[in-house]
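Please, structure for the following, as tokens.
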Amino acid sequence: MSFQPSSISASSYLRIFLLCAFCCEFSFIAGAETIQLNPVADTTLLEEFSDNNMGGHTHLAAGLTRTGNSRRALLRFDLEGQIPADAAILSAELTLDVTLAGNTNNGAMFELLRVLKDWEEGDKDSNLGRAAENGEATWLSRRHQGELWDSPGMQQGGDFAEAASSMTFVGDLGTYTWTGLEGDVQSWLDDSSTNFGWLFKDQAESTNQTARRFASREDTARAPILTIEFEAGPSFLPGDANEDGVVGLEDFVILKDNFGATNATRQLGDFNEDGQVGLDDFVILKDNFGTTEGNAVPEPSSACLALLGLLAIIHGSRQAVRLRRSR
């Protein structure tokens, strides 16, 4: 008795595919990825040296000095080209290294607040900065001899956000982390034109000698690190013809019903977008069968692959028979 692929009904195809699905042993690979970024710009604003810039130095300063003068720092990270534009940010945290603590009895809460206006880092590298050149950030200006801050040292609600994005208590030397920054990072990823980084400061600025030095990006061994966990979802889920977020039997039925079609779309089963529904599209569906949007990628067992390969051969044979009969 000879085997005739053309005699196999649509329901039989579905039964074979169901058998494949149940025979598969899926091991899942998490879709989340992690990236660590250093700042592309950072600098310190010095209250008593209001026209100085400190953008090229190896440390940032924040807090109040022994004489009650304020230090505030700015940091900005570039996300473009680092994270897919359509990614979902799952978590984000900033790690800073305290390199000089001064009076360790006067620890304080230090906060990060989103900056609302653009600024320029500058390149001055003294402990107290040096006279700013045109365009460099200072206590008074976003760009020296250009745009001023709304008020000296930056104004809350105008130059930076009303609410802090994260706070952490800082005491002695060591490494400290500010968590819960995923909202800021997601907003910057969604609209890079709003990415002006964070202002970093002593939350209360009410007690002298809370000032700390933190390694800047110029201190490459201890530079600030922004750790981002994200999930990069494709613009569509491969194999998801009906776009319901799951690659399953309904998608297989769509592919089967349109197998051999030309001028096809992804919604008809043309997953590789070559204009026709064929075996390559079946392979894409097979490789992604059981996945859900934003979730894991299944890895079939060898037995499953064999069964699915058989189904693919049957598909090809049936199509060939149809073509011969039509001639």
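The chain has two domains: 5-30+234-326, 33-231. The two ends are 26 Å apart (CA to CA).
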